[in-house]
Specification:
Family: Belongs to the bacterial/plant glucose-1-phosphate adenylyltransferase family.
CATH topology of the largest domain: Spore Coat Polysaccharide Biosynthesis Protein SpsA, Chain A
Strand order of the largest sheet: 5-4-1-6-11-8-12
EC number: 2.7.7.27
CATH architecture of the largest domain: Alpha-Beta Complex
Radius of gyration: 22 Å
Structural class: alpha/beta
Enzyme class: transferase
CATH class of the largest domain: Alpha Beta
Protein name: Glucose-1-phosphate adenylyltransferase
Number of strands: 31
Number of helices: 8
GO molecular function, one term: ATP binding
Strand content: 25-35%
Largest sheet: 7 strands, mixed
Distance between the termini: 61 Å
Length: about 400
């Protein structure tokens, strides 16, 4: 029996404004994670290990940062003569041309290409979460159910539920109610931005909705499409067993890194049966120099530590000089913390320089420093502060 024909559409076009300075000059899926990875590596690795070779990535905002990372798709076995990785940039020349105005709108704009491809199942995923999932298992459950959409769900904290699409599910797995970012969530069961659609029925429904939604358009999947499918009794839930964390805000991005510093991290990124792959350069071994001290941290290749690092993630090429202290922070590639400086509960973007005896962050909200910024010798960026990247002439 032939396997069903599956197409994965990775929605990577959003601006990612909730990540603030981290997405000013890069697409959200290209944001580094856990030292050597990018956020888009997680859905692409899921595709690889699920045996799905047809993957389209819809790009829009800062596409060059993502295109450089994806290249020909080789790390995820997507460099193929037939099928494989395909980029979908904005286009002109038809009524569906132009920039997308939400995830459902983006799906509508690519409808003709999807119909031509004629998949048995369409998997639509975002790229701002950290998780492992066999998409093909979800596809099999979807096709067996007769549903028009299967929503992968997870449990979230009550005070965080209003950020997500929230569902109510009956004992048979049917979604009986869907609310998109509700002010008063009825449950803590959230959709985690992985959906399996029956393509023909879903695209037909999008066409009909597009004729009725008015000037605001189709917007996101949760605005019109998913509520309509739920109302008609055609939505099913697929609970995700295991770790999932949205990293679409500065606070959640920082917290996700803290999750991976435990003695038993929630996901083994090097698991032999399901490694997370990435496209990266070669770096020398990390060096902890005489007098350097590293405790409970992730230290990537090419780093040099002569100071003290605790509870932090150091990306490739980071330097922490003698007498400097880095605590509970995330340092992206090329950050240089000079002698006597202190960095606490902060995220420092690419190539930031923290001057001698400078202080960045402290107890309280997460501090964020934009790429290639310099904190002068003796300077201070207070807890919860923002130092944007320098303007370029």
């Amino acid at each position: 029996m032939a396997l069903p024909k599956v197409l994965v559409l990775v929605l990577a076009g959003g601006k990612g404004s909730r990540l603030e300075l981290l997405t000013e000059t890069r697409a959200k899926p290209a944001v580094p994670f856990a030292g050597v990875y990018r956020l888009v590596d997680f859905p692409l690795s899921n595709c690889e290990h699920s045996g799905i070779a047809d993957v389209w990535v819809s790009v829009q905002y800062q596409p060059q940062s993502l295109s450089e990372h994806l290249a020909n798709g080789r790390p995820w076995d997507l460099d193929r003569t037939t099928g494989g990785l395909m980029m979908l940039p904005p286009f002109q020349g038809s009524e569906r041309g132009g920039f997308t105005e939400g995830t459902a709108d983006g799906l509508w704009r690519q409808a003709e290409l999807i119909r031509q491809f004629a998949p048995d199942a369409l998997v639509v995923v975002s790229s701002d979460a950290v998780y492992k999932l066999d998409y093909r298992e979800v596809v099999d459950a979807h096709l067996a159910s007769g549903a028009e959409v299967t929503m992968v769900t997870t449990e979230v904290e009550p005070d965080d539920a209003a950020r997500y699409g929230i569902v109510q599910v009956d004992d048979d797995g049917r979604v009986t109610d869907y609310a998109y970012k509700p002010d008063e969530p009825a449950t803590t069961t959230a959709t985690n931005e992985v959906f399996v659609f029956s393509p023909a029925e879903t695209l037909d429904r999008l066409e009909a909705l597009n004729d009725t939604v008015g000037e605001d358009g189709l917007e996101d999947l949760g605005n019109h499409l998913l509520p309509a499918q739920t109302k008609d009794g055609l939505a099913r839930a697929y609970p995700l067993q295991g770790y999932w964390r949205d990293v679409g805000t500065v606070e959640s991005y920082w917290q996700a890194h803290q999750d991976f510093l435990s003695a038993e991290p929630p996901i083994d990124l090097d698991e032999r049966s399901w490694p997370v792959h990435t496209r990266g350069g070669r770096h020398s071994a990390a060096r902890v120099l005489a007098g350097g001290n590293v405790d409970g941290s992730l230290v990537s290749g090419g780093t040099r530590v002569a100071g003290t690092v605790r509870g932090s993630v150091l990306s490739p090429g980071v330097i922490v000089e003698e007498g400097a202290t880095v605590v509970d922070s995330v340092l992206l590639p090329g950050v240089h913390v000079r002698a006597g400086a202190t960095v606490t509960r902060a995220v420092l973007d690419d190539n930031v320089v923290v001057g001698e005896r400078a202080t960045v962050g402290g107890d309280g909200d997460i501090t964020l420093v934009g790429r290639e910024s310099t904190v002068p010798d003796g300077g201070e960026v207070p807890a919860g502060g923002r130092l944007p990247e320098p303007e370029r002439s």
